[in-house]
């Protein structure tokens, strides 16, 4: 079968013929109909991910068929039984184990979940990694209540958009930030109340003047911009961050955090239970992932370049 392989650390993946993994007990062969890229795939091709192995098929997300039925894959493998934190064996499909940018994939049946009926294969393929990350960050780590104010940063991102959609479905008032005014405009069309361009150094002051602060922050960037996220927090606010695209945080003000009793949580993907609950939530609220573009499997490099440039709004999906 054909698959996109990483042959060298720091190199783009190449399309080549590979053998399918041996099918062991409890495993099945899923024929992939669609897959989707995550920022993780970019970090791997840049050599900026721990324990990269060469000769591996990239890709964590997929929708495909097995035995006449259509499924999506939970890419978080071996989470373990502790809902609070993943086990030492936890790993993510698509490094170090062969992933979904392939015509077929061998996967343990327990990671297959029925495709939501209201989604087509491309929409369903956009869900798994970003969806479960956003679900755990928002629902488990910050426990939103109806009417609370939620700020989601970097709204062009795949995880960020799911967090926004989930928070709106919870009845929260959602505010967003982006480096792009066009992306802010799109987010308003999807139900955000206000958008702020984080390239403007005064955006946080403006949000405070407009809305007086937020109860929840969902962030995937950190960096020095994190200080503004703390400044806009109401007393008792919860911040969950799932990524560090902008690097380390300098100058964090401890007084602000302890005096306002702010909770800051790190979060990573989600447990099998979180994945199950995320799908139930998607089905209940008929949430449709925001897709930036569907690209042919043969042209995967176009998707990698687009995500690396940061120009996308939502998930980039590959049609196999
Ligand atoms: N811990 C986990 O389990 C987990 C899971 C998924 C992702 N992640 C990490 O989370 C990050 C985002 O992942 P993704 O797949 O959603 O990526 P993505 O779809 O490529 O989104 C990246 C977005 O980050 C935003 N961004 C970049 N710099 C920013 C800054 N300084 N301040 C605020 N926003 C900024 C941009 O938003 P605008 O274009 O709107 O400016 C960009 O669209 C990556 O670092 C990824 O590795 C971690």
What is the fold's blueprint, element by element?
Elements: E1 2-6, E2 14-17, E3 27-36, H1 39-45, E4 56-57, E5 61-66, E6 69-73, E7 76-77, E8 91-93, E9 96-97, E10 104-108, E11 112-114, H2 121-125, H3 128-140, E12 149-152, H4 158-169, E13 173-178, H5 181-189, E14 194-197, H6 203-211, E15 214-219, H7 226-231, E16 233-241, H8 254-259, E17 263-266, H9 272-285, E18 291-296, H10 300-309, E19 315-319
Parallel strand pairs: 8-9, 12-13, 12-15, 13-14, 15-16, 16-17, 18-19
Antiparallel strand pairs: 1-2, 1-4, 3-5, 3-10, 3-19, 5-6, 6-11, 7-8
Helix pairs in contact: 3-4, 3-9
The structure holds NADP nicotinamide-adenine-dinucleotide phosphate (NAP).
Residues 38-40, 43, 129-130, 133, 153-160, 178-180, 183, 198, 220-221, 223, 225, 242-243, 245-246, 268-269, 307, 310 line the site of NADP nicotinamide-adenine-dinucleotide phosphate (NAP).
Q: What small molecules accompany the polymer chains?
A: NADP nicotinamide-adenine-dinucleotide phosphate
* Number of strand elements: 19
Write down the overall mean pLDDT.
Answer: 97
Category from helices, strands and their pairing? alpha/beta
| CATH hierarchy class name of the largest domain | Alpha Beta
Instruction: Compute the CA-based radius of gyration.
Output: 19 Å
Q: Which stretches are low in confidence, meaning pLDDT under 50 for 5 or more residues running?
A: none
Helix content: 25-40%
Largest sheet: 7 strands, mixed
């Amino acid at each position: 079968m054909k698959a996109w392989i990483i042959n060298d650390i720091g190199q783009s993946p190449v399309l080549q013929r590979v053998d399918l993994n041996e099918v062991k007990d409890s495993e099945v062969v899923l024929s992939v109909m669609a897959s989707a890229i995550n920022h993780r795939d970019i970090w791997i091709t840049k050599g900026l991910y721990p324990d990269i192995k060469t000769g591996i098929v990239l890709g964590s997300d997929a929708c495909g068929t097995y035995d006449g039925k259509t499924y999506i894959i939970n890419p978080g493998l071996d989470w373990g039984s502790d809902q609070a934190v993943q086990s030492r064996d936890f790993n993510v499909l698509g490094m170090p184990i062969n992933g979904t940018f392939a015509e077929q994939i061998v996967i343990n049946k327990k990671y297959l979940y029925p495709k939501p009926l209201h989604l087509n294969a491309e929409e369903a393929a956009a869900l798994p990694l970003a969806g479960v990350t956003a679900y755990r960050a928002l629902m488990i780590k910050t426990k939103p209540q109806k009417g609370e104010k939620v700020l989601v940063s970097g709204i062009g991102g795949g995880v960020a958009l799911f967090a926004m959609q989930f928070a709106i479905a919870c009845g929260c008032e959602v505010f967003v930030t982006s480096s792009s005014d066009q992306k802010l405009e799109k987010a308003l069309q999807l139900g955000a109340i206000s958008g702020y361009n984080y390239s403007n150094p005064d955006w946080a002051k403006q949000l405070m003047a407009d809305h007086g602060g937020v109860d929840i922050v969902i962030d995937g960037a950190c960096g020095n911009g994190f200080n503004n996220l703390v400044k806009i927090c109401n007393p008792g606010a919860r911040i969950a961050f799932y990524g560090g695209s902008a690097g380390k945080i300098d100058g964090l003000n401890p007084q602000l955090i302890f005096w306002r009793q702010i909770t800051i949580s790190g979060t990573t993907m989600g447990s099998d239970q979180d994945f199950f609950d995320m799908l139930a939530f998607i089905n209940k609220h008929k949430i449709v992932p925001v897709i930036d573009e569907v690209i042919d499997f043969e042209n995967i490099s176009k998707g990698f370049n687009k995500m690396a440039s940061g120009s996308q709004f939502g998930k980039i999906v590959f049609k196999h």
